[in-house]
Task: inverse folding
């Protein structure tokens, strides 16, 4: 499974590559700070903080179809809200690894010297322009 789904994310962003890069930079900053808050919530045994931060991480990751992070965050959030339990060490390690994987995948787009451009074949064709429809 890929860390992110570039095509569906770019499509969701209206093929706006500048927005993609902005959101990637925001993920880099926000996901790592949210992860630190989640870890602090676990250390402080705050089920409320764990539920809140895992929910926020799920939303941040969903923008990029980052399934591993979304699934891990949903599981942690559910465990906190329904069972009123904190995640174990293994689950937190999985969450950290998933976030780091997404951050690494997105860093490629943040360090490119040329502007990010989608493949031409992925761009939508307006009706009547090159589509054979008049």
Result:
């Amino acid at each position: 499974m890929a860390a992110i789904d570039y095509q569906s994310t770019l499509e969701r962003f209206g093929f706006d590559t500048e927005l993609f890069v902005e959101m990637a930079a925001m993920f880099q900053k926000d996901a790592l700070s949210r992860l630190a808050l989640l870890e602090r919530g676990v250390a402080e045994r705050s089920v409320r903080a764990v539920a809140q931060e895992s929910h926020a991480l799920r939303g941040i990751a969903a923008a990029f179809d980052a399934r591993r992070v979304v699934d891990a965050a949903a599981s942690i959030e559910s465990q906190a809200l329904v069972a009123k339990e904190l995640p174990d060490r293994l689950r937190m390690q999985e969450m950290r690894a998933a976030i780091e994987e997404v951050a690494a995948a997105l860093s490629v787009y943040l360090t490119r010297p040329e502007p990010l451009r989608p493949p031409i074949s992925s761009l939508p064709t307006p009706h009547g322009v090159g589509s054979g429809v008049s």
